[in-house]
Specification:
Oligomer: single chain
Number of strands: 6
Shape: globular
Helix content: 40-55%
Structural class: alpha/beta
Distance between the termini: 30 Å
Mean pLDDT: 90
Radius of gyration: 20 Å
Strand content: 15-25%
Length: 244
């Protein structure tokens, strides 16, 4: 097992450049800024993920904690291998190899980590009938060949794929994901395909105006007061923060 502080040191060693003192340790605020800038997560979360994936039977025997950071850099920057390799100080081929090994290992955790039941803690059904907020996000891809207009996303003005993600309003945890689909698929199509069937009777879902067409969807315009609309905005802001 690896601790949060040990992972902090792994990140310092990974990001350190040749002109920096080996004994230099940044302050906690600077350290946290580095984690947010380069990895998009925290050392506590990184340590938890590493401890889970390293316990798997099929885990790659040559993997090291720094290789998980490679995956974080790729998912955070979404840039080319040569650019990302410069960030962590390794060869581009090495970066590509280990980043994708780690991404696949993390993906294998989703059945254990992302469960729909995690939306329930803190939900008082006598107060509200909604305990999750859902939204879709489009991610750019290279232009597929032959040309197919169904890949086009109006959000990114180019080819892309779409994922649907729901988080618990009270827990703040990701409780559902669905995808990928071609970017032209509408939000309501994705909602009806899977998430709609998971809901309890009379359970509702907070969503933006891009997902309409079912009685269980609580869109922004149904807020009857300034306070209600403000609360709905705060809930959807959590979802937008997830997509970055």
């Amino acid at each position: 097992l690896i601790t949060e502080e040990a992972f902090r040191q792994v990140a310092r060693d990974t990001l350190r450049r040749g002109n920096e003192r080996r004994n230099h340790i940044p302050g906690i605020l600077a350290d946290n800024r580095n984690w947010a800038t380069y990895f998009g997560t925290s050392p506590r979360v990184a340590a938890e993920i590493w401890n889970k994936i390293s316990a798997a039977e099929n885990f790659h025997p040559g993997a090291e904690p720094k290789h998980l950071l490679y995956a974080f850099v790729l998912m955070k920057a979404y840039a080319g291998d040569k650019f990302n390799a410069k960030v962590v100080g390794c060869h581009a081929n090495t970066f590509a190899k280990w980043a994708w090994i780690m991404i696949e290992a993390v993906h294998d955790l989703h059945h254990e980590v992302i469960t729909f039941e995690k939306r329930l803690p803190g939900w008082n059904q006598a107060v509200t009938n909604a305990c999750i907020v859902v939204d879709c996000s489009d991610f750019p891809i290279l232009e597929p060949w032959p040309f197919d207009a169904s890949w086009w996303s109006h959000k990114i003005n180019g080819p892309g794929i779409k994922y649907e993600v729901a988080i618990g309003i009270h827990s703040g945890l990701i409780v559902h994901w669905h995808g990928w689909k071609k970017a032209s698929v509408s939000d309501i199509e994705m909602f009806r395909e899977l998430l709609l069937g998971k809901l309890q009777e009379n359970e509702c879902v907070e969503a933006d105006n891009g997902c309409k067409g079912e009685d269980c969807l609580k869109n922004p315009d149904i807020g009857k007061s300034r306070l209600a609309r403000g609360q709905k905005n705060c809930v959807r802001a959590k979802q937008e923060n997830l997509f970055g």
